[in-house]
Amino acid sequence: MYQWRLEPATGRVVEQPLDDVPIEYPRVADADVGQRYRYGYVTSFALEPVPERSQIYRYDFTDRTSRRAHRLPAGHTCSEAVFVPRPGAGDDNGYLIAFAHNHFRGTSYLLILDATDLTAPPVAEVHLPVRVPAGFHGTWLPDH
């Protein structure tokens, strides 16, 4: 994973390596897109068609602490994790929501994690009777 910092005044792009773990689906809170942000979320990446498992990582880019991870059970993989803030909260005070796929059963579930503690068990799992296709991407919008 690399961080690219654009410097409009000089026209330079500064590239800095952050981690050597293979990752995919980088996200920040939607409200932070294009702004300075503290936390970023990614999922693990493997070249196998059915990797053994997936992990969701949280990076703190301000204090450069090591990544935090939620490890899915063996045979489960997931899509990108979308951050949903708790009302009135800041930073990473909210939830990470991702579709996960159970390769053994051929079904999917909506995985909901506490963004402040990825090592904790899921807040909830909403199991679906069918598989959500890989590559399904989305975002959460207010209903008003």
Walk me through the structure.
The protein is an all-beta fold and 144 residues long. It is 0% helix and 42% strand. The chain contains no helices and eleven strands. It has strands at residues 2-7, 12-17, 23-27, 39-44, 55-60, 68-71, 76-78, 82-85, 94-102, 107-114, 124-127. Strands 7, 8, 9, 10 and 11 form a five-stranded antiparallel sheet that branches. Strands 3-4-5-6 form a four-stranded antiparallel sheet, with no helix packed on it. Strand 9 (94-102) and strand 10 form a beta hairpin. The N and C termini lie far apart (36 Å). The model has no long low-confidence stretch (mean pLDDT 84).
Question: What's the N-to-C terminus distance?
Answer: 36 Å
**Outline type:** globular
- In DSSP terms, counting alpha (H) and pi (I) runs of 4 or more, how many helices? 0
What number is the mean pLDDT? 84
TL;DR of this structure?
The protein has no helices and eleven strands. It has 144 residues and is mainly beta.
